[in-house]
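A quick word before the example. In earlier lectures we treated sequence and structure as two separate objects. From today on, think of them as two lines of the same record. Here is Selenoneine biosynthesis selenosugar synthase SenB written that way.
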Amino acid sequence: MRLILVTPAKPGSKAGNRATAERWKTLLANAGHSVRVVTEYDGEPCDALIALHAWRSAGAIRRFRETWPEKPLIVALTGTDIYHHQHEYPEQTLYSMNVADALIGLHGLVADDIPAGLAEKLVTLYQSAEGPESFPEPEMDSKSNRFGVCVIGHLRHEKDSLRAAYATRLLPGDSRIEVLCAGKAHNDEWQRKAEREMAENLRFRWLGELDQADTRQLMANSQVMVISSIMEGGANVVSEACRAGLPVLASDIPGNVGLLGRDYGGYFPVGNEEALADLLNRAETDPGFLATLTQQVGKLAERFIPEKEQASLEQALQLAMQRCSERR
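And the structure line, produced from the sequence above:
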């Protein structure tokens, strides 16, 4: 099939939407499809359109549906679509969700948080990541005695990016924990907040935006990853951590629970640095707890392989074509 994939993230962007679009292009090409990734859609013909982001891609979605009313349309829902935009901008967001022939949700609990009538056209897709063979060996340095904790993602409100840093202020004085945060500041305010925290908190370092190789090295050097988001559509960094065998301490939001499962042992209440500090201290001082988390992410790793993500994309395409033919 000739597919057009719309993403609001421009070429070269390190935004998650762009990485997802490029990965899906590769997976769909592997399945025999011809895929073009665009940031704007002007009505050009294709066999089906896949739009990343119901709200940000609403203009492209409307244009496609009005120009090609009988062709399959797939809309992938992001965290901000589900947990913010459908409430803040309901007309545009719900239009996109309603006119889609198939919806893609990026974690297993999305059906609970969208209008009930839409669940029948929802396909759950777990974003994939490369396996442990793609990660380097840990670096040995003068601070090898430290207990490394990584936080990966752009610094912004939705990510609650400094929660791990705040938690380290509550640790015992003899703790070896150091939090390294990698990601671009969303705006000047976040840059100032990160720089101020770094100046005041010796356990915290902000590394800025890293390329893929340096990000993987950071993960390899870490004993634990923290994902503290207040809203998340299904963060690919969780997939990467599971595939790398890196234990995760995660806020107990649907976007994390929908990836790691209700029985995962590393959750803390969203926004609660006291609870996170307790988990960090336990991870550092209780080898059994850390081993349990490592075992759990190891078992989850199979969920996030490329072959399964490709199969889910094909499932979404098949569902969209089926529902499209039923509309005719």
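Notice the following. The first strand starts at residue 2 and ends at 6. We will return to this example when we discuss secondary structure assignment.
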